[in-house]
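Handoff note, outgoing to incoming analyst
You'll be picking up this chain. Sequence as last confirmed:
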Amino acid sequence: MNFPAEALLHNVRSLYNVGAFFRTADAVGLSRLHLSGFTGLPPSKQIAKTALGSELTVPWQRADALALVDDRRHAGWETVAIETVDDAIDLFDWQPRFPVLVVFGHEIDGLPADIVQRCDTRVRIPMVGTKRSLNVATAGGVVLYDLFRKSRIG
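Most recent structure output, in case you need it:
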């Protein structure tokens, strides 16, 4: 079952993280996974190791990040940067407007400012630990499952 959501991975350097996103995308029935910047693409031994075959079944495509955000916005989608910035909404308070595109960035540097500013909404995952960050694939799992839950009760 697909739900009206897509994800964009921009400059995700670890192929294992990309594979983990494929696996989560499959689990929630994500409509499409977009890969941009220097994010690695299938076929890849490292992606396959964590994707466990989902890279063969989840619809995906290479994308230009800014063009994709603009395209989805013009089509009426909510575009969302998953990023810890001053004006970010707490994930648990966010009420998504479907269809939605969620955008994830580099494991250390996050998303470039031009992508963050282009998105309609910025969402942060609440954290109380001292590190204040999650692995990008873990963050993807948290966000995609929360989005999946909200699509089923909305």
